[in-house]
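Researcher: Here's a chain I'd like modeled. Treat it as a single chain, no partners, no ligands.
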Amino acid sequence: MIGRNSLLAMTSFSKYLVLLGALLLCSACSNMFLYPTKDYVVSPARLSLAYRQLIIRDKNQADLSAWLLLANQPAKGLIVFVHGNAQNMSNHLASIYWLPAAGYHVLTFDYRGYGKSAGGKSLTGAAKDIKRAILFSKKLNQSMSGGNLKIYLYAQSLGASLSVSALSDMQVKAVLSKVILEGTFASYRQIFREKASLFWLTSVLAYPLSYSLPEDLSAERHIAKISPIPLLLIQGENDFIVPPANGPVLENLARQPKSYWSFPNKGHLEIFLSKENRQQLIEYLNE
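Model: Modeled as a single isolated chain. C-alpha cells:
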C-alpha cells in the first residue's frame, strides 16, 4: 500500500519532470525553426551557371559559405538572396537560378551551421549573418563595378522574417535599393503556437513555451522601419506553411512605398515556378 508521503513525493517528482521537460522544450523552441543540412545536393555549375565560391569572413564571427551567381549579360544589379529555414543554399537554387539570365548577379549564402558555413545554428546568429551578407554585398559591388550596381534583397520564409529585423540596422538598410519578401510570417510566437498546437505532445504547452522565443526579432515589430526603401511583399494564398493571413498583417504595418502581391492557388515558395510570375518580378526589379 502506498502511503501519503510516497504519494506526495511522486506528485512532486511528476511536477519536476513536467518542469524539466518544459525547460528542455524551451531551449529547443528556437531550434525548431532551424533545420540545416551539410551536404550540397547540386552546384551552380551543374545548372550551367557561372559562379564564384566565396567566404564571408568577419572578425570573431563564423565563416559563411557563399556563392555569387554571375549575370550572363551586362549586369543590371546585384541581388542578395536569403533562403528559408531548411537544408542549405544548394537546395534553394531553384528559387534563383533564372535571375542571372535576366541580368542580375545573385549572392546566396548559408547561415552559420548550414552547409559549409562554420558555427552552430541559432536564430539570433542567423539574423547577424543576414546583416553580414548585405554589408559584404556592398564590398562586392565596389570590387565588381566600382559601386555602380543597385543592390536588392530577396528573402523567403524564415529568411524573410529574419531579414526584416536585420534592416532595423541603418548601416545595413543604407545598402539596399529594394526589398522583396516572400512568404513572411509576422511573429515567431504566433507561428510557433499555430504549429505546436497541431501535435498533442506540444499543444498543451504551445502558449507558455512560445514566450521563450525572441519576439524582438519578429517582422511585425520592425517592418515599418524598412521605409523609405521600396518594399514588395509576396504571398501565396494556398500557403500551408506560412498562413496567408500573415501577408495582410505585415502589409498594414509597413509604410510607403510598399506593394503587396497575392497569388491565388500558390503554395509556399511556389509562386516563381511560373515563368509569367518570374517576368513580373523581373519587371519590378527593372523599374
